[in-house]
Amino acid sequence: QVQLVESGGRLVQAGDSLRLSCVASRGTFSSYVMGWFRQAPGKEREFVSGITRSGLNTYYADSVKDRFTIFRDYVKNTVYLQMNSLTSEDTAVYYCAAALQFTARGMSPDYWGQGTQVSVSA
User: Fold this and answer.
1) Rounded to 10 degrees, what is the CA torsion of 117, 19, 90, 63?
2) What is the mean pLDDT of each run of 10 residues along the chain (122 residues)?
3) How far apart are CA 1 and CA 98, in angstroms?
4) What pLDDT is stored for residue 27 in this prediction?
């Protein structure tokens, strides 16, 4: 089992950058593929980004592919989401997630963090 705790969400202005952090504990960090999802008011939760166990491969939703970067630190057991050029469309609760592996559909998390609010003013 693994426990996930996100942090870093806050109110920013359009064009700003923000880095979210997710600390994994209890489990073996390197055994999990990690990812980020987000859910905006009135919308379904959507996949944002994912990273393999080795950290060598990353995946992004088309809406963030050229602006966000996911990476992980095995010493700190932390996965990050660097978000640049934020727009109001990025406003959502962002959730950290962990899974044993990626699926054909992308990622079906076994564990979720509590979420952290990112608000981008227009």
Assistant:
1) -140
2) 96 98 94 97 96 97 97 97 98 98 91 98 92
3) 10
4) 87
For the chain, what's the residue count? 122
Residue-level pLDDT at 116: 98
Strand spans (E) along the chain? 3-7, 11-13, 18-25, 33-39, 46-51, 58-60, 68-73, 78-83, 92-99, 111-112, 116-121
Look-up: residue for tokens 């960090």?
Answer: 29
At residue 9, what are phi and psi to the nearest 5 degrees? -70, 140
The DSSP-derived string for 19-54 is EEEEEEESS-GGGSEEEEEEE-TTS--EEEEEE-TT
Structure tokens at 69: 């970067």
